[in-house]
Amino acid sequence: MKRVAFWAALAIVFAVAAGCGHKRVAPYAPRMPDVKEHKGQTSDEDCLDCHALASLPDHSVSDSCLDCHRVIPGR
Ligand code: HEC
Ligand code: HEC
Questions:
Q1: What is the number of domains present in the chain?
Q2: Rounded to the nearest whole angstrom, what is the distance from the C-alpha of residue 31 to the centroid of ligand 1?
Q3: Phi and psi based region of residue 33 (left: phi greater than 0; alpha: psi -120 to 50; beta: remaining)
Q4: In angstroms, what is the span from residue 68 Cα to ligand 1's centroid?
Q5: Which residues of the chain have pLDDT under 50?
């Protein structure tokens, strides 16, 4: 019985950890690649010219893209 409880607890831990990967947590947001298209991007509307909102999981128009996505120079 104890053993079952252990595996059940472990399963819950993994389920929660896996869920976190899909929450929109800024540190987990992919960096904007340091490509020429991203040079000098300062407004959120600009992003939508190239990135279709419909193709982004859990994103909305009111998002401040740059709060979460930044260019890391050289990457
Ligand atoms: C002129 C077109 C253009 C604009 C404007 C633009 N992007 Fe991009 N973006 C691209 C291209 C092209 C790529 C793919 C680059 C590569 O991987 O070589 C990309 C890739 C990305 C990625 C990585 C996607 C992934 O799957 O890892 C993120 C994040 C991103 N852009 C965010 C933004 C944000 C936020 C803005 C607004 C500040 C923005 N982009 C504005 C063209 C653009
Ligand atoms: C609250 C933080 C947050 C904000 C604001 C935000 N994003 Fe994201 N974005 C994320 C996370 C986290 C991911 C990773 C995908 C996932 O796990 O849902 C992501 C993924 C992406 C990707 C890659 C999608 C893919 O298919 O790999 C692009 C491009 C992107 N965001 C662009 C934008 C644009 C454009 C905006 C503004 C409209 C924006 N993001 C606003 C957190 C954010």
A1: 1
A2: 9
A3: beta
A4: 13
A5: 21
Distance 1 CA to ligand 2 centre (A): 43
- Domain span at residue 43 reads 2-68
Q: Which atom of ligand 2 is nearest to the CA of 21?
A: 17
Phi-psi region of 32 (alpha: psi -120 to 50; beta: other; left: phi over 0): beta
Identity of residue 22: H
Whether ligand 2 lies within 6 angstroms of the CB of 67 is answered as yes
Residue 23 pLDDT = 56
pLDDT of residue 21: 47
Distance, CA of 26 to CA of 24 (rounded, Å): 6
